[in-house]
Amino acid sequence: MSGSPQYEVIVSDKFAEDLRRLAAEARADPSRVFLRQQVLAQMKQLADGTTDGRHALGYESGKGDLRDCVTAYLQSDPQQRADYRLVFREMPPAGPGGLPRRELLAVKPRQGVGNIYEHTCARLNRNLHDRQPGLNAFGDRMPSLKQNQAQRRAELDANRAIAHAFPGQVPLATSRPLASSQFGRRGADSPPRQDRSLDR
After folding, report:
1. How far apart are CA 93 and CA 74, in angstroms?
2. Is the dihedral of CA 100, 106, 107, 113 positive or negative?
3. What is the dihedral of CA 91, 88, 6, 4, to 10 degrees?
4. What residues contact 164, with CB distance under 8 A and at least 6 apart?
5. Mean predicted confidence (pLDDT) in 8-25
6. C-alpha span between 13 and 174 (Å, rounded)
7. Which residue has the higher pLDDT, 12 or 144?
């Protein structure tokens, strides 16, 4: 990584499963290597702050309330449009003087049965048709909203400030820190090391 990490990346157990699945697919099918490399690169960029994701998510009945989440775009094929998404949440540091955290929740296909949004809601224990009252602090983003890059960045910046100050924004009990030394190595496909400070 270039310089020190700007964010502590934490990984849910289900995201770790997604990584292991992608690694197994890449070993079995060389055409899947590109997607796995993109995921690892995106994780590194989220840690060092060179990306903040593509855009904030919103609420839509049937797709769930993900107003506290951000999506990043990934391509499974470099010649095609981005067909995968990585979803994460911003949150405050674990303690005074710590880095703000980014919790990686899912990396899945954008569309189809068992798509990224269904998986993310299930992992957060959210019903696909219900609003989460605690997320009203993030406002009401229309999922179909078309924005230019400056508008997307402004929305991401505003939501990040809310998330970093929001006391309800805590990681899943199964999420663990991913050490920066694991980026780009086979260890990134293994379950993250447990940090006892996050045990619940």
Report:
1. 27
2. negative
3. 140
4. 90, 91, 92, 100
5. 93
6. 6
7. 12
Q: So what's the pLDDT on residue 3?
A: 65
**Could you tell me which residues are beta bridge partners of residue 147?**
none
Cβ atoms 138, 162 nearer than 8 A: yes
| The pLDDT of residue 196 is above 90 | no
Closest CA to 53 of 32, 74, 36: 74
**Residue 126 has what pLDDT?**
93
Distance CA 12, CA 176 (A): 6
- Which run of H or of E encompasses 156? helix 149-165
Tokens 């960029």 found at = 45
Burial (CB count within 10 angstroms: exposed 0-12, middle 13-18, buried 19+), residue 10: buried
User: What's the gap between Cα 166 and its chain centre?
Assistant: 18
What is the tens place of the pLDDT at every residue in 64-120? 899 999 999 999 888 889 889 999 999 999 888 899 999 999 999 888 777 888 899
Element (DSSP H or E) covering residue 116: helix 116-123
Q: Tokens in use for 169?
A: 């924004």
| Torsion-angle region of 20 (φ positive above 0: left; ψ -120 to 50: alpha; else: beta) | alpha
